[in-house]
Amino acid sequence: MRIFTKNWFKAAAIRAIKTVAQTAIATIGTTAVISDVDWLVVGSASLLAGLLSLLTSIAGLPEVDG
């Protein structure tokens, strides 16, 4: 397994961005109306999810392992 290569960074970044977007959508979706969205919660939860995604990618990425 090769980590911290150009391909690994690209694949890990794509996964992290997707995870951030999915978390933001899910967090926003828990409110009844858009004016009730707690944007600080959305931002912090999304950034934490992105960081966790990057840390999880250290264990390996099928896109890079093959």
How would you describe this structure to a colleague?
The protein has 66 residues and is mainly alpha-helical. The protein has three helices and no strands. The longest helix is centred in the N-terminal third of the chain and has 23 residues. The relative contact order is 0.23.
What would a concise description of this structure say?
By secondary structure, this protein is mainly alpha-helical. It has helices at residues 6-28, 39-57, 62-65.
Name the descriptors.
3 helices, 66 residues, elongated, mainly alpha
What is the number of helical segments per DSSP (H or I, 4+ residues)? 3
Radius of gyration: 14 Å
Main beta sheet, described?
A: none
The helicity comes to 55-70%
List the helices and strands and how they pair.
Elements: H1 6-28, H2 39-57, H3 62-65
Helix pairs in contact: 1-2
